[in-house]
Amino acid sequence: MIRKQIALVMPKIFPALLLVGGLGLVRAEADVVTTVGGESLQGKVTFRDGDVLEMVRESGEKVRISLTDLASMDFTSADQPWLIGGTGVLVTNGSFLAGPVAKVDERVVTFDDHPKSLLLTRQNTAALFFQSLRSWDAEALRFGREGVFLRGGDFMGGGLVGLEEGRVIIDSLLLGRRTFSVETEAIAVILQEPVAVAQEGWSLFLEDGSRLRSRDILLTDDGVLLNQSPYHNHLVAKNQLRVIRRERARPLLEMFRARWLALEPERPLAAAALGEDVTAAELAESLVAIGEERSRQEAEWNAAKAEWIRCQQIVSRVKAIASRGASHIGRMQGQVEDKVRRVGQDEAMVLQAVEDISRKMEMVERAKTRFEEIKRDLNAIPREDSVRLRNWELQLRNAERQKQTAERIANQARAVQRRYEARVKSSQRLVDMARERVVKAREQKEKDDRTHREAEENLKSAKVSYDRASADLREVSEEYRRMEFLLRQKGNGEEK
């Protein structure tokens, strides 16, 4: 008896208190249809266009059922109840759309993968949920006023300004404009009370934890079509459905609390699980079992904390590396620009040398022409005219010296040109090498940035795990204290 009672306590205390998310889904072998008259039918359901479905029973019999005769359809095994999704949007018509919200502006609410058939506005949004609600969250959350519900149970009243890049912005009359992380701080944002939750209609419970409310539905070969606000020709595929039920919609938080109270009906959870006739010895043995679970949760909490700290250290290190890489690239880019300027200067000097050579060659050509003219005139002078001969020979020697000087100056200009051309080639090689280093540095910087982003994501995940481990430890510690109290009560009662 004792072991059985302990077995009742342990599964219910810990995993069952997490009211949302993470449940593996297994399809039942047979669909279950319940009519408005209370008849239950099992078989394989096929949708027909319009308002008729067809069921093939195990016997092979085909049964056609109209929507007017339908009370519910269940496509899942009975031992795996639908659970409310952890993140998503509560619509004013009582629908809950599971999935992370990417952005909220002054007009619309946008999911990461926003279907065009879903028009979610600020006007038809009642609340935004960012994290999984636990038992105490569900109990504390109310729709009395607009504001943000924070981890730990705190509530800050204020109007929603918007949501972007994982931060929700709230305008508080007392505290002014504040922002909160949707991953680590904000649990939910309340905008308004759902106004149509009691409306008669249909509830569609989906695999992802969504609950879609609509006054009317239309069956198609592919699934269920919704065409009432906030839906516009919104098709829900049959393989996404878990349950279709005709009902007045229950408020979302009422569904949270109903599931919680089913586990803990107005009494400590341990007492509800063990029963009223439990002995002190049985309570003591259960206390030991819960103590063992607390020790395990403490170990998980310590591990999660260590991982969180390790991730913080990694983020700091890779962030510093990425920062140094950016500075290094800036410095190398400056070096490239300096070398490019030098190449430009040397190229300008090459052009100047070319222009100078052109001028020097003109001087050479004039000197050559003068030399040839004097030489011709000299050859024309008679040999007997020795005076003239000596004079023209002197002029010829002077012209030759001028020609040689001009050629020497031209050669010097060519040498200058070759020197600057060599400098251009050398400087260009340095530029190319520097640019290659910049490219490699940028590639390394991209790798460092990716590493930094991955480290940041790991840090976020580690923080979430740490927060969850902290919440689990608080809960099991509280349950341990409750069991201790029950044990003391039982002891006092037995003494009396």
Keywords:
6-stranded antiparallel beta sheet; 6 helices; 22 strands; Helix Hairpins; 50% helix; SH3 type barrels
Give a written overview of the molecule.
This protein is α+β, with helices and mostly antiparallel strands and 496 residues long. It has three domains: 28-79, SH3 type barrels; 88-263, no CATH class; 305-478, Helix Hairpins (Orthogonal Bundle). It contains six helices and 22 strands. The protein has helices spanning 2-13, 135-140, 252-263, 269-274, 280-380, 386-495; strands spanning 27-35, 40-48, 52-56, 62-66, 70-76, 88-91, 96-98, 101-104, 109-111, 125-129, 147-150, 155-157, 159-164, 167-172, 176-181, 186-190, 200-206, 211-214, 218-219, 223-226, 234-237, 241-248. An eight-stranded antiparallel beta sheet has the order 4-3-2-1-5-22-17-18, with no helix packed on it. A hairpin with a 7-residue loop joins strand 20 and strand 21. Residues 1-28 and 263-276 have low confidence and may be disordered.
